[in-house]
Amino acid sequence: MRQIKPNIYAVGAIDWDRRLFDELIPLPDGTSYNAYLIKGSEKTALLDSVDPTKTEVLMSNLVLLGVDRIDYIVSHHAEQDHSGAIQDMLTLYPDAKVVANPKCKAMLIDLLCIDEDKFVTVDDGQTLSLGDKTLQFINIPWVHWPETFGTYLREDKILFPCDFFGSHLAMSSLFVDDEPRVYEAAKRYYAEIMMPFRTIIQKNLEKIKDLQIDMIAPSHGPVYDRPKFIVDAYRDWVSDNVKNEVVLAYVSMHDSTRKMVEYFVEALIERNITVKQFNLTVTDIGQLAMALVDAATLVLGSPTVLTGAHPVAAYAAILANALRPKTKFASIIGSYGWGGRMVEQITGLIPNLKVELLEPVVAKGYPKDSDFTALDELADAILVKHSELGIVK
Ligand code: FEO
């Protein structure tokens, strides 16, 4: 438990050991579930709770602070890593009301079976007075569920945006003390969680741009006492700008596809195109997602298994399709033994990507001279496309 500013405390929990979120997302640096207590001159509010596995930490922090009454539990987002201890909070503080917008209220009832009469419903822009402190609620949908809203604490100029601007980082420092490290973790978090909602986030950034913000206190990771750093990073990530980069994600069974990948990587390097290569059998999908934030082109490499794509390559295609990066171009390279529909299958898995498909290169068996020539032609085509976007230096 730490004080952020007078009468504003971080009362959440650090989860140093968690290594997976949603049974999907790697957490190499653990995470934190940030909850904040705001003591006004008349009322006390708790902003969010913690993951159910850390309820005791939250309770202990509140006891340490001597909190004998909570009037409002503001639940910005119904996902259980923030809402999962609300029922226990209501047991501990039976007079407390849960403050949520209508969508979040409905989801909290669905997910946590909270009684309807426990709620105070608030709308976008509405305020709630704690006496000498005023909570202003701001709907910021799809960061990362549709119901998400944030709170702006007017007198202290602190924005509490829940997942928005967060990072999965377990660290002892309350505030950002290592911007490059937090940038990396926040970018990973954006890539894994927020990227599909890029255009909506552009609107959310627009919505908060006129607020005077001294601090951003998200629900994961450290507090930003220099908020411009993370707001500028988000502006870059959600912009339409792409970089002169190719993400090449591949799997190979008997080295034919691997040989093509090696040749193709060299061909791209010779053309001064940055390549980020991922062997899908060992890669951290968070790193792959991060690379997709900026890359102009995605190339998937796959052998043909029976009649279709290697399932691991299909998984990468499904993941990219779900993450909806701003990638402009895509292609496929790989190999086959006696036929199949590997290319058609992969292209059918990425309908959400608004990409121009560049001519795939598929070798029969081990790649021959004509296949290497085709790879050079694909590298040339990528260079032309990137040059037309003005991103080649
Ligand atoms: Fe950190 Fe979407 O919950």
Explain what you see.
The chain has 393 residues and is α/β, with parallel strands linked by helices. It has 12 helices and 24 strands. A hairpin with a 2-residue loop joins strand 20 and strand 21. The model has no long low-confidence stretch (mean pLDDT 97). The chain is elongated. The strands form 6 sheets. Strands 1-2-7-8-9-10-11 form a 7-stranded mixed β-sheet. Strands 17, 18, 19, 22, 23 and 24 form a 6-stranded parallel β-sheet that branches. Strands 12-13-14-15-16 form a 5-stranded mixed β-sheet, with no helix packed on it. The structure holds MU-OXO-diiron. The site of MU-OXO-diiron (FEO) has 8 residues, from helix 2.
Brief description of this entry?
By secondary structure, this protein is of the alpha/beta class. The protein has helices at residues 55-64, 80-83, 86-92, 102-112, 179-194, 198-208, 228-238, 256-270, 285-292, 311-323, 342-348, 369-388, and strands spanning 2-5, 8-10, 13-15, 20-21, 25-26, 31-33, 36-39, 44-47, 72-74, 97-100, 119-121, 127-129, 134-139, 149-153, 158-160, 215-216, 243-250, 274-279, 295-302, 304-305, 308-309, 329-336, 356-357, 361-364. The structure holds MU-OXO-diiron.
Mean pLDDT: 97
Described by its quaternary structure, the protein is single chain
Helix content: 25-40%
Question: Biggest sheet: strands, sense, closure?
Answer: 7 strands, mixed
Number of strands: 24
Structural class of the helices, strands and pairings?
A: alpha/beta
Which residue ranges are poorly predicted, with pLDDT under 50 across at least 5 consecutive positions?
Answer: none
Determine the N-to-C terminus distance: 49 Å
- Determine the strand fraction and express it as a percent band: 15-25%
Strand order of the main beta sheet, please? 1-2-7-8-9-10-11
Could you tell me the radius of gyration in angstroms? Answer: 24 Å
